[in-house]
UniProtKB/TrEMBL annotation:
Keywords tagged on the record: Signal
Organism: Metabacillus litoralis
One Pfam short name: Peripla_BP_4
A GO MF term: carbohydrate binding
Keyword check for Nucleotide-binding: no
SUPFAM superfamilies reported in the protein's UniProt record: Periplasmic binding protein-like I (SSF53822)
Name recorded for this polypeptide: Sugar ABC transporter substrate-binding protein
Length: 325
């Protein structure tokens, strides 16, 4: 009897050990599942370039959002804004790595649409920043109303001149809707104010090219009084061209970079229209997380534009330095 009772106890202990072992395995499996569920969302940000000050501020905003929202983030961009196919290749390569969302500023919208369609086919949300694209499947566009910003720049330039004065326009890469919209807005304002637009030339978003273009325009147009340039980086080149020629030409740019603000303070340029590139980068990632979660995202998020002259340039400069520290 004792042996039989002892045998029953041993069997009971073995059964209990087996049950405990099974429960331990389930806990490990659930823990692994929980860990898997807590994996960081993967967001890839593709910009038009990584080499200019403007895009550095976009990067800074995106990187801060990566930290704030616990994101596994990657930022990509070609060596210059003229490298359109390099940007397309970067987006296609990023797609093969299975991101949860794409945040992008496309240099040439029509060239990028086939790649955007590939992301759509893979159920990966696409959010546009800085540069809007006529594509129905975008989650949102976050950025400046470039036509309005350009118009503000044109109005600023016109306010420095007299009716009938000769003015010129310098734009970025041909095919860039951003630069096209800015030039169109500026031109509308200048013509409405009675200015004579005597030249319009591209400078490929390149400071050195803008300097050369400016010099050529001055040589070809005696009595030129002003120029609107569709980015501050090019405006700095144009300003140098004006100085090289010893001309009296008022220069207005658009973006609100540190260099341009310092130029306004020093009276080398009369003003600029400041965008909020930091907000574009930050809000791009912030809303990508909303899209990944299936939350509602506004179809259009305007990050604003502010006219900058010598009166408020220092305040804006202090702000930019504070967010870049």
């Amino acid at each position: 009897m004792k042996k039989h009772f002892l045998f029953q106890i041993i069997v009971l202990i073995m059964l209990l050990c087996t049950l405990v072992g099974c429960n331990t395995n389930n806990t490990t499996s659930e823990s692994a599942d929980t860990s898997s569920n807590e994996e960081k969302p993967k967001v890839v940000v593709v910009l038009q370039s990584l080499t200019s000050e403007y895009w550095n501020f976009v990067q800074a905003g995106a990187k801060q959002a990566f930290k704030d929202f616990n994101v596994d983030g990657t930022i990509l961009g070609p060596s210059s804004e003229s490298q359109v196919m390099e940007q397309i290749n970067m987006m296609q390569d990023a797609l093969t790595k299975g991101p949860d969302a794409l945040v992008v500023s496309a240099t040439q919208p029509e060239t990028a649409i086939p790649t955007f369609n590939q992301y759509k086919e893979s159920d990966i949300p696409v959010l546009l920043i800085n540069q809007d694209v006529d594509w129905d499947n975008k989650v949102t566009f976050i950025g400046t109303d470039n036509f309005t910003a350009g118009k503000k720049g044109g109005e600023l330039l016109a306010s420095m001149l007299q009716k009938g004065d000769k003015v010129a326009l310098i734009g970025g890469v041909l095919g860039s809707q951003t630069h096209r919209d800015r030039l169109d807005g500026a031109k509308e304002a200048l013509v409405a104010a009675g200015m004579e637009v005597v030249a319009e030339q591209p400078a490929d978003s390149d400071k050195s090219k803008a300097m050369n273009v400016m010099e050529n325009i001055i040589e070809s147009n005696t009595g030129l009084k002003g120029v609107f340039v569709s980015s501050d980086d090019m405006a700095m080149g144009a300003s140098r061209g004006v100085q090289n020629k010893g001309a009296d030409v008022q220069v207005v740019g658009l973006d609100g970079t540190v260099e341009s603000l310092e130029s306004v303070i020093k009276d080398n340029t009369v003003g600029t229209v400041a965008q909020n590139p930091y907000d574009m980068g930050y809000k791009g990632v912030e809303n990508a997380i909303k899209a990944i979660k299936g939350d509602s995202v506004e179809k259009r998020i305007d990050t604003g534009a502010e006219v900058i002259t010598k009166e408020n340039a220092q305040e804006r400069l202090d702000f930019l330095k504070s967010i870049s520290e």
